[in-house]
Amino acid sequence: MANILRRHVLLLTVATLLLFSTVPVSNSIPFILFHGIGDKCSGGVSNFTQLLSNLSGSPGSCLEIGNGEADSWFMPLTHQASLACEKVKMMKELSQGYNIVAQSQGNLVARGLIEFCDNAPPVVNYVSLGGPHAGIAAIPKCSSGPFCAIAEALMKLEIYNDFVQDHIAPSGYVKIPGEMTKYLGHSKYLPKLNNERPDQRNSTFKDRFVSLHNLVLVMMMGLILCCQLNRQNYTEKTGSV
Ligand SMILES: *[C@@H]1O[C@H](CO)[C@@H](O)[C@H](O)[C@H]1NC(C)=O
Ligand SMILES: *[C@@H]1O[C@H](CO)[C@@H](O)[C@H](O)[C@H]1NC(C)=O
Ligand SMILES: *[C@@H]1O[C@H](CO)[C@@H](O)[C@H](O)[C@H]1NC(C)=O
Ligand SMILES: CC(=O)N[C@H]1CO[C@H](CO)[C@@H](O)[C@@H]1O
To answer: Which chain regions cross the lipid bilayer (predicted)?
Structure first.
């Protein structure tokens, strides 16, 4: 993922710069960054964070959830979003408002933070880089590392099984076409985030999301987004957020 990110760094930087520079008042607004799955705040991501900070002239930091790499795979997104919520409330520098930049799966954490976090400091601008907001048709391929074997074993189970939902983060946004009943009944994250259950829609989530000053969505090809579904597949069922 680091390689792909490097290739896209120019594009991303331009997008981010545009955002940060077209809104004069946001010049000194701090930002936080959420990395993608299998990544961590140290390493390549810290360079990227530093680069964004250098180019935008805004202080920024990567917000780590749990231990980073492993937790990005195994901690359910509900829990990740609630940890993010607690962390931002403790960061004094964010209390007057802040911006969010998120990469791939980090966008699901970011949106959970924006929508579900009560009494949180306001999010001003949100830049989404390759966010699988409408879900993915399959769990992203695990390229290497100690977690792959465990993750792959668990994935052989039913994706909407409670155990998988509670132990594999990306299962929270798998949305398999043709399995909408199971998805709406048993997926523990995306249906709530996207207000997709007609009897459980919560206008507070939507209000918080639409209160953003700017929303920038950057599509990235060739990333885990190979599995991302297009709008057409979901025109009928997608929630109103
Ligand atoms: C971070 O950037 C420095 C130079 O600015 C470079 O030497 C280093 O290899 C980079 N680290 C990663 C993990 O990309
Ligand atoms: C950011 O700026 C600092 C200070 O000028 C510099 O040392 C650092 O290498 C820069 N980092 C990146 C990733 O551009
Ligand atoms: C909607 O979400 C808000 C914020 O979390 C919560 O306070 C409220 O009780 C929820 N409303 C319903 C009807 O569940
Ligand atoms: C996963 C899936 O069903 N994807 C389909 C979404 O719709 C496009 C056409 O609009 C198809 O090409 C995809 O196969």
So the answer is: none
* d(C-alpha 170, C-alpha 238), whole Å: 18
Residue nearest to atom 12 of ligand 2 (CA): 51
For residues 14-26, one letter each, b for 16 or more C-beta atoms within 10 angstroms of the residue's C-beta and e for the rest, the string is ebbeebbeeeeeb
112-122 confidence digits (pLDDT tens): 999 999 999 99
* Type of residue numbered 121: P
Residue 40 DSSP symbol: -
State mean pLDDT over 123-138: 87
- Pairwise CA distance, residues 57 & 177, whole Å: 43
pLDDT range class, residue 85, cuts 50, 70, 90: very high
Helix (H) or strand (E) holding 216: strand 214-218
Extents of the domains making up the chain: 2-222
Measured in whole angstroms, how far is the alpha carbon of residue 41 from the centre of its chain? 14
Q: Does domain 2-222 have CATH number 1.10.3720.10?
A: no
17 Cα–ligand 3 center, Å: 35
pLDDT tier at 192 (50, 70, 90 boundaries)? very high
**Location of structure tokens 């950057």:** 218
CA of 45 to the centre of ligand 1 (A): 10
pLDDT confidence tier of residue 233, bands split at 50, 70 and 90: very low
Q: Measured from the CB, is residue 204 less than 6 Å from ligand 2?
A: no
Nearest ligand 2 atom to the CA of 47 is 13
Strand-pairing partners, residue 125, are: 214
Pair 218, 128: CB distance under 8 Å: yes
